[in-house]
Design a protein that fits this description.
4 helices, 98 residues, globular
Length: 98
């Protein structure tokens, strides 16, 4: 997934068309959402489910890195441990990228 994400980033940098850049960014975000679910899924403590609270924290941190553009943004969270099966976690990751 990292290769596919990297290729979309590289293509976006080469394009002069802002619409193409936006679409490639959306594509990159979807790939990274799936990668985050897979990363959590293959941790030793959870092969069939993920901790949604931890996933949302990691996801939020990634969003801040992508969109903060040098601004200082503090993120506070108070999340409960909610376990989701992979069949629900993957669509949540895709929906939260928009």
């Amino acid at each position: 997934m990292q290769v596919v994400a990297g290729l979309s980033k590289m293509q976006a940098r080469r394009s002069d068309d802002e619409r193409v850049k936006r679409e490639l960014q959306k594509y990159y975000n979807r790939v990274m959402a799936m990668a985050a679910v897979h990363e959590q899924m293959y941790r030793p403590e959870s092969l069939s489910a993920i901790n949604l609270g931890m996933y949302v924290e990691e996801f939020s941190g990634g969003l801040l890195q992508m969109y903060a553009e040098g601004k200082q943004i503090d993120l506070e969270s108070n999340l409960e441990e909610i376990t989701l099966g992979i069949e629900l976690a993957a669509p949540c990751g895709l929906a939260r990228r928009y």
